[in-house]
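Dear H.,

Thanks for agreeing to be a second pair of eyes. The structure we're designing against is below in token form, covering all 389 positions.
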């Protein structure tokens, strides 16, 4: 497979959070399909500050096996699927890797599974990925929503795997697309997923990430606006148990005028060494006048010994915008909420469960699939039962 490389300029951002160390300007990071263009993973790199290479289970190696698990798809009439190579125009149509595990998966998956959503109709797609292999493997998926399409695509990851995954999301002009990625692996799985979206004129993307199962799960999601009028809503929900590491990295690239983005991620943590990381990067370039953006992260720590890192980053290169802001907070139960519920005859344990349900339900309700909503709600109930909260 031929390699494509985009050489970076050099520079530091004018705005950074966490540890007081400036980060590299977001759009200047190297992008390449060749894993050799990326150095070994090191905590000196901002994107690997929290996650060491040993937790990746070999997904940073030069080569990986191709994914051999099951990939089952159900879809509406008119949706087409095919395995395609790099000669297909959709291959790389949403972007290329900008870190080592993503490049390793790109080079190791010789073909991509392309799901084409037809124009001018409403469609539903569900892709169930399951595995029972402990061998580090690679998978490449492409979702291509044609102009004026309206669709919901659900990616459902289950079983046991050590998986490096690239997901490309192409949203055509005037299309409306919802993509839901569920990580519900068993306790020993490792999953590194890079999900890149590119939006056309007046298009809308709702991207939802739900991470519940797995020893180490890292989802790096990005949205790039290519034409005016784009709108993205990036939502996420995660629940970490003892010893579990869940990381979400977001990037919104406002490169053109008059686009809107909203980012809302919520997480709950319980148990010793439960660890979550959320990093949200928003870039407003000089040409992106009229931008309207806001990002929010909230974490609820249910027990001692849990840790949540939350790092919002906002880079603004023009003052001619509608609005830009961010907020993050991590804390324990609101004593006033608990008192209010207990004063109405609800036990403390049930009051705590009601608070957690309400906290996470905001994200679950954004999924337009009743069966999936019920399943996720039951998963949260099971987590709470396990902890006795």
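And this is the sequence the design step returned. I haven't edited it by hand at all.
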């Amino acid at each position: 497979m031929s390699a494509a490389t985009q050489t970076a300029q050099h520079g530091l951002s004018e705005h950074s959070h966490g540890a007081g160390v400036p980060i590299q300007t977001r759009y200047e990071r190297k992008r390449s399909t060749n894993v050799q263009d990326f150095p070994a993973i090191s905590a000196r790199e901002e994107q690997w500050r929290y996650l060491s290479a040993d937790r990746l289970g070999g997904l940073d190696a030069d080569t990986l096996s191709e994914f051999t698990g099951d990939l089952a798809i159900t879809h509406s009439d008119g949706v087409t699927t095919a395995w395609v190579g790099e000669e297909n125009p959709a291959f790389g149509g949403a972007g290329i890797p900008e870190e080592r595990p993503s490049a390793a998966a790109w080079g190791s998956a010789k073909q991509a599974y392309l799901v084409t959503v037809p124009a001018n109709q409403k469609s539903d797609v569900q892709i169930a990925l399951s595995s029972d292999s402990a061998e580090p493997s690679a998978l490449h998926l492409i979702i291509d929503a044609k102009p004026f399409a309206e669709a919901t695509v659900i990616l459902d990851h289950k079983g046991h795997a050590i998986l490096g995954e690239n997901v490309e999301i192409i949203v055509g002009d005037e299309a409306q697309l919802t993509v839901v990625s569920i990580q519900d692996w068993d306790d020993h799985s490792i999953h590194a997923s890079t999900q890149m979206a590119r939006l056309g004129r007046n298009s809308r993307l709702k991207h939802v990430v739900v991470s519940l199962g797995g020893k180490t799960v890292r989802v790096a999601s990005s949205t790039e606006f290519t034409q005016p009028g784009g709108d993205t809503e990036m939502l996420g929900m995660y629940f970490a148990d003892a010893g579990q590491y869940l990381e979400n990295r977001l990037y919104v690239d406002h490169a053109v005028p008059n686009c809107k983005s909203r980012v809302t991620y919520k997480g709950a943590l319980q148990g010793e060494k439960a660890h979550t990381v959320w990093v949200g990067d928003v870039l407003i370039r000089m040409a992106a006048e009229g931008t309207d953006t806001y990002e929010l992260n909230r974490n609820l720590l249910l027990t001692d010994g849990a840790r949540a890192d939350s790092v919002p980053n906002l880079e603004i290169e023009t003052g001619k915008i509608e609005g830009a802001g961010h907020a993050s907070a991590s804390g324990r139960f609101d004593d006033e909420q608990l008192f209010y519920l207990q004063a109405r005859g609800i036990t403390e344990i049930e009051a705590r469960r009601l608070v957690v349900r309400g906290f996470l339900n905001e994200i679950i309700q954004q999924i337009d699939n009743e069966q999936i909503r019920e399943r996720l709600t039951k998963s949260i109930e099971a987590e709470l039962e396990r902890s006795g909260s």
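Two observations from my side: The chain has four helices and 19 strands. Residues 334-389 form one domain.

Warmly,
E.
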